[in-house]
Amino acid sequence: MPIKISKHIQTKAPSLFPDADQASVYTAQQIAELIHQKQREGNQVTLGLATGNTPKKVYQELIRLHKNEGLSFQNVITFNLDEYYPIGPDNDQSYTYFMRHNLFDHIDIQQENIYIPQTNSTPQEVAKYCQAYEDKIAEYGGLDLQLLGIGRNGHIGFNEPGSSFASTTRLVNLHPLTREDAIAQFGTIDKVPHQAISIGIHTIMQAKRILLLALGERKSEIMNKALSGEISVDIPASILQTMSQVEYILDQEAAVLIQEEDRV
């Protein structure tokens, strides 16, 4: 089903913070406020979560809020955006390991409420598994909030350049730049997987609220393109320009080119 792109695009000005710490704390506060709101209503909340360096400080703040300020995750269901394929959940380079180490092992979330793409399916089984992951998200009524980072090539999740805006959860081929950026994690390029399972752009777009967090000068060029450039599958994050539920959260370094353009 094709995505209709609005001709009336009003990209929100990003929320700017002096540094990565303050941007991350603000992001965590937005998540915590939604959890509290749903608790007051007696409802569950479904969060879409990201991995990589960008959300680490967000998760640190959520852990602090849990341990020091009583934030409970008992009503929280989580779906992670992606996972390398193939990789086992106990591999210390897997996103399952990442999430346990950086968040889940430190909070009171119920283990049965954690969903992370598992990549132990055979190639013949992957499509069926991906559809089941989509169905599970739909079963919970979709994502109440999706936390996103952005790749230097504009990917969100592992929806690489060229990904259809109508895409759903599927097996994807990783872009060379994405694999290059993962060398620090895996040690050598030969150890970086060539594929991953990723929630699709259409699934992300259905989230009731989206927080895109970008930190550091190395994200400044792509953020400028994603915020003010042409809407194109060449920059997957550009589709977010059309969506009123998106908030861009940037530190000063990630916003440097945007601010320079505003001064021209």
What key attributes describe this structure?
single chain; 264 residues; alpha/beta; seven-stranded parallel β-sheet; three-stranded antiparallel β-sheet; globular; disordered N terminus
Structural write-up:
The protein is 35% helix and 16% strand. The chain has 264 residues and is an alpha/beta fold. The strands form two sheets. It has a seven-stranded parallel β-sheet, covered by helices on one side. Strand 9 (210-214), helix 8 and strand 10 (246-251) form a beta-alpha-beta unit. The longest helix is centred in the first third of the chain and has 22 residues, at 20-41. The chain is globular and about 40 Å long. Residues 1-10 have low confidence and may be disordered.
List the helices and strands and how they pair.
Blueprint: E1 15-17, H1 20-41, E2 45-49, H2 56-69, E3 76-80, E4 82-85, H3 95-102, E5 114-115, H4 123-139, E6 145-148, E7 170-173, H5 176-181, H6 183-186, E8 195-198, H7 201-205, E9 210-214, H8 220-228, E10 246-251, H9 256-263
Parallel strand pairs: 1-10, 2-3, 2-6, 3-5, 6-9, 9-10
Antiparallel strand pairs: 4-8, 7-8
Helix pairs in contact: 1-2
